[in-house]
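A quick aside before the break. I want you to see a complete sequence-to-structure record at least once, exactly as it would be stored in a machine-readable document. Don't worry about memorizing anything.
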Amino acid sequence: MRLLVLEDDPKLGPWVEKGLREAGHVVDLFTDGKDALFAAIDQSYDVLVLDRMVPGLDGLSVLKALRQAKVTVPAIFLTALSEVDDRVEGLRAGGEDYLAKPFAFSELLARVEGLARRPGASEETASLLAAGDITIDLHKRTCVRQGQPVDLNPKEFQLLEVFLRSKGRVQTRTMLLEKVWDMNFDPTTSVVETHISRLRGKIEKPFGDTVIRNIRGTGYVFEQV
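That is the input. The structure line, written in C-alpha coordinates, reads:
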Protein backbone atom coordinates (compact mmCIF):
# COMPACT_ATOMS: atom_id res chain seq x y z
CA MET A 1 0.00 0.00 0.00
CA ARG A 2 0.95 3.63 -0.37
CA LEU A 3 0.51 5.60 2.83
CA LEU A 4 0.65 9.29 3.71
CA VAL A 5 1.86 10.15 7.21
CA LEU A 6 1.53 13.66 8.65
CA GLU A 7 3.63 13.88 11.81
CA ASP A 8 5.96 16.71 12.82
CA ASP A 9 7.63 15.04 15.80
CA PRO A 10 11.29 14.63 14.69
CA LYS A 11 11.58 11.21 16.38
CA LEU A 12 8.10 9.75 16.09
CA GLY A 13 7.58 10.59 12.42
CA PRO A 14 10.67 8.79 11.09
CA TRP A 15 10.00 5.88 13.50
CA VAL A 16 6.48 5.38 12.16
CA GLU A 17 7.71 5.77 8.59
CA LYS A 18 10.47 3.20 9.12
CA GLY A 19 8.08 0.68 10.70
CA LEU A 20 5.53 0.99 7.90
CA ARG A 21 8.24 0.63 5.26
CA GLU A 22 9.59 -2.48 6.98
CA ALA A 23 6.05 -3.88 6.81
CA GLY A 24 6.30 -3.57 3.01
CA HIS A 25 4.44 -0.32 2.41
CA VAL A 26 5.40 2.79 0.44
CA VAL A 27 5.33 5.79 2.78
CA ASP A 28 5.38 9.55 2.19
CA LEU A 29 6.15 11.42 5.43
CA PHE A 30 5.14 15.07 5.79
CA THR A 31 5.74 17.49 8.65
CA ASP A 32 3.70 20.31 7.11
CA GLY A 33 -0.08 20.14 6.73
CA LYS A 34 -0.22 22.14 3.51
CA ASP A 35 2.30 19.86 1.80
CA ALA A 36 0.32 16.82 2.97
CA LEU A 37 -2.94 18.31 1.68
CA PHE A 38 -1.55 19.05 -1.78
CA ALA A 39 0.01 15.58 -2.00
CA ALA A 40 -3.23 13.83 -0.97
CA ILE A 41 -5.18 15.75 -3.61
CA ASP A 42 -2.62 15.23 -6.36
CA GLN A 43 -1.65 11.59 -5.71
CA SER A 44 -3.31 8.28 -4.88
CA TYR A 45 -2.97 6.94 -1.34
CA ASP A 46 -4.52 3.91 0.35
CA VAL A 47 -4.62 5.30 3.90
CA LEU A 48 -3.80 8.63 5.57
CA VAL A 49 -2.20 8.75 9.04
CA LEU A 50 -2.73 12.24 10.45
CA ASP A 51 -1.44 13.99 13.56
CA ARG A 52 -3.92 16.59 14.80
CA MET A 53 -1.35 18.78 16.53
CA VAL A 54 0.77 19.98 13.61
CA PRO A 55 1.74 23.69 13.45
CA GLY A 56 -0.06 25.63 10.75
CA LEU A 57 -2.58 23.48 8.93
CA ASP A 58 -3.30 20.68 11.41
CA GLY A 59 -4.43 17.16 10.58
CA LEU A 60 -8.10 17.89 11.33
CA SER A 61 -8.11 20.83 8.90
CA VAL A 62 -6.30 18.75 6.29
CA LEU A 63 -8.95 16.03 6.44
CA LYS A 64 -11.84 18.51 6.33
CA ALA A 65 -10.33 20.09 3.20
CA LEU A 66 -9.86 16.68 1.60
CA ARG A 67 -13.44 15.65 2.28
CA GLN A 68 -14.66 18.92 0.77
CA ALA A 69 -12.53 18.13 -2.29
CA LYS A 70 -14.27 14.72 -2.51
CA VAL A 71 -11.10 12.80 -1.60
CA THR A 72 -12.44 9.71 0.17
CA VAL A 73 -9.26 7.80 1.06
CA PRO A 74 -9.59 6.40 4.63
CA ALA A 75 -7.85 8.31 7.40
CA ILE A 76 -6.74 7.50 10.92
CA PHE A 77 -5.85 10.19 13.44
CA LEU A 78 -2.70 9.56 15.48
CA THR A 79 -2.67 12.15 18.24
CA ALA A 80 -2.22 13.02 21.91
CA LEU A 81 -5.71 14.56 21.91
CA SER A 82 -7.49 11.58 23.40
CA GLU A 83 -10.59 12.95 25.14
CA VAL A 84 -14.00 11.72 23.98
CA ASP A 85 -14.84 15.12 22.46
CA ASP A 86 -11.55 15.05 20.51
CA ARG A 87 -12.29 11.60 19.10
CA VAL A 88 -15.85 12.56 18.18
CA GLU A 89 -14.59 15.71 16.44
CA GLY A 90 -12.10 13.67 14.42
CA LEU A 91 -14.66 11.10 13.36
CA ARG A 92 -17.19 13.76 12.43
CA ALA A 93 -14.56 15.48 10.29
CA GLY A 94 -14.41 12.37 8.13
CA GLY A 95 -11.87 10.19 9.90
CA GLU A 96 -12.45 6.44 9.97
CA ASP A 97 -10.33 5.68 13.04
CA TYR A 98 -8.60 7.35 15.97
CA LEU A 99 -5.52 6.15 17.87
CA ALA A 100 -4.26 8.04 20.91
CA LYS A 101 -0.60 8.50 21.77
CA PRO A 102 1.28 6.71 23.24
CA PHE A 103 0.51 3.67 21.15
CA ALA A 104 1.92 0.30 20.13
CA PHE A 105 3.20 0.21 16.56
CA SER A 106 1.66 -3.22 16.02
CA GLU A 107 -1.77 -1.74 16.75
CA LEU A 108 -1.20 1.16 14.36
CA LEU A 109 -0.13 -1.25 11.61
CA ALA A 110 -3.16 -3.48 12.20
CA ARG A 111 -5.53 -0.52 12.07
CA VAL A 112 -3.97 0.92 8.93
CA GLU A 113 -4.11 -2.40 7.11
CA GLY A 114 -7.64 -2.95 8.40
CA LEU A 115 -8.80 0.36 6.94
CA ALA A 116 -7.50 -0.63 3.52
CA ARG A 117 -9.47 -3.89 3.66
CA ARG A 118 -12.77 -2.37 4.74
CA PRO A 119 -15.80 -3.26 2.57
CA GLY A 120 -16.83 -0.36 0.39
CA ALA A 121 -13.37 1.16 0.36
CA SER A 122 -12.85 3.61 -2.45
CA GLU A 123 -10.96 2.89 -5.66
CA GLU A 124 -7.79 4.24 -4.09
CA THR A 125 -7.89 1.49 -1.48
CA ALA A 126 -8.60 -1.42 -3.82
CA SER A 127 -6.44 -4.48 -3.32
CA LEU A 128 -5.46 -4.61 -6.99
CA LEU A 129 -3.28 -2.06 -8.76
CA ALA A 130 -2.94 -2.42 -12.52
CA ALA A 131 -1.44 -0.79 -15.59
CA GLY A 132 -2.03 -2.40 -18.95
CA ASP A 133 -1.41 -6.15 -18.64
CA ILE A 134 0.46 -5.88 -15.31
CA THR A 135 -1.50 -6.35 -12.08
CA ILE A 136 -0.25 -6.45 -8.51
CA ASP A 137 -2.20 -7.45 -5.41
CA LEU A 138 -1.23 -5.08 -2.60
CA HIS A 139 -2.45 -7.39 0.14
CA LYS A 140 -1.16 -10.71 -1.15
CA ARG A 141 2.02 -9.05 -2.50
CA THR A 142 1.73 -10.90 -5.82
CA CYS A 143 2.30 -9.83 -9.42
CA VAL A 144 0.75 -11.12 -12.64
CA ARG A 145 1.50 -10.15 -16.24
CA GLN A 146 -0.50 -11.45 -19.18
CA GLY A 147 -2.01 -14.01 -16.86
CA GLN A 148 1.39 -15.33 -15.80
CA PRO A 149 2.63 -15.00 -12.19
CA VAL A 150 5.84 -13.03 -11.77
CA ASP A 151 7.94 -13.85 -8.70
CA LEU A 152 9.22 -10.60 -7.14
CA ASN A 153 11.19 -10.11 -3.96
CA PRO A 154 9.92 -7.43 -1.50
CA LYS A 155 12.05 -4.58 -2.87
CA GLU A 156 11.22 -5.42 -6.47
CA PHE A 157 7.53 -5.43 -5.54
CA GLN A 158 7.84 -2.03 -3.83
CA LEU A 159 9.65 -0.62 -6.86
CA LEU A 160 6.94 -1.85 -9.20
CA GLU A 161 4.24 -0.44 -6.91
CA VAL A 162 5.91 2.98 -7.02
CA PHE A 163 6.09 2.82 -10.82
CA LEU A 164 2.47 1.72 -11.22
CA ARG A 165 1.28 4.54 -8.99
CA SER A 166 3.36 7.11 -10.86
CA LYS A 167 3.01 5.84 -14.44
CA GLY A 168 3.99 8.51 -16.92
CA ARG A 169 5.87 10.53 -14.27
CA VAL A 170 9.64 10.41 -13.92
CA GLN A 171 10.98 8.90 -10.71
CA THR A 172 14.51 10.07 -9.93
CA ARG A 173 17.09 7.86 -8.32
CA THR A 174 16.84 9.94 -5.14
CA MET A 175 13.05 9.57 -5.06
CA LEU A 176 13.32 5.80 -5.40
CA LEU A 177 15.96 5.58 -2.67
CA GLU A 178 13.69 7.52 -0.30
CA LYS A 179 10.46 5.66 -1.15
CA VAL A 180 11.78 2.10 -1.29
CA TRP A 181 14.93 2.05 0.85
CA ASP A 182 14.27 5.00 3.20
CA MET A 183 17.68 6.39 2.25
CA ASN A 184 18.88 9.90 1.48
CA PHE A 185 20.86 10.39 -1.71
CA ASP A 186 24.07 8.37 -1.79
CA PRO A 187 26.08 8.81 -5.01
CA THR A 188 28.10 5.66 -4.29
CA THR A 189 25.27 3.13 -4.10
CA SER A 190 24.04 1.18 -7.10
CA VAL A 191 21.13 -0.45 -5.27
CA VAL A 192 18.50 1.30 -7.43
CA GLU A 193 20.13 0.32 -10.71
CA THR A 194 20.67 -3.26 -9.53
CA HIS A 195 17.07 -3.80 -8.44
CA ILE A 196 15.59 -2.11 -11.50
CA SER A 197 17.73 -4.34 -13.71
CA ARG A 198 16.43 -7.43 -11.88
CA LEU A 199 12.85 -6.15 -12.02
CA ARG A 200 13.08 -5.52 -15.75
CA GLY A 201 14.50 -8.99 -16.22
CA LYS A 202 11.32 -10.39 -14.70
CA ILE A 203 8.58 -8.15 -16.11
CA GLU A 204 10.11 -7.20 -19.47
CA LYS A 205 12.52 -9.80 -20.81
CA PRO A 206 10.08 -12.79 -20.83
CA PHE A 207 7.49 -10.64 -22.63
CA GLY A 208 9.78 -9.03 -25.19
CA ASP A 209 9.03 -5.37 -24.50
CA THR A 210 10.01 -2.35 -22.39
CA VAL A 211 7.82 -0.79 -19.70
CA ILE A 212 10.43 0.95 -17.52
CA ARG A 213 12.40 3.48 -19.55
CA ASN A 214 15.65 5.08 -18.44
CA ILE A 215 15.63 8.86 -18.87
CA ARG A 216 19.33 9.65 -19.17
CA GLY A 217 20.55 11.94 -16.41
CA THR A 218 17.10 12.14 -14.80
CA GLY A 219 15.65 8.83 -13.67
CA TYR A 220 13.08 6.27 -14.77
CA VAL A 221 9.52 6.36 -16.05
CA PHE A 222 6.92 3.60 -16.27
CA GLU A 223 5.18 3.64 -19.64
CA GLN A 224 1.65 2.31 -20.08
CA VAL A 225 1.57 -1.11 -21.75
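Two observations worth writing down. Residues 105-117 form the longest helix (13 residues). The helical segments are 12-22, 33-42, 59-68, 84-92, 105-117, 154-165, 173-181, 191-203. We'll return to this after the break.
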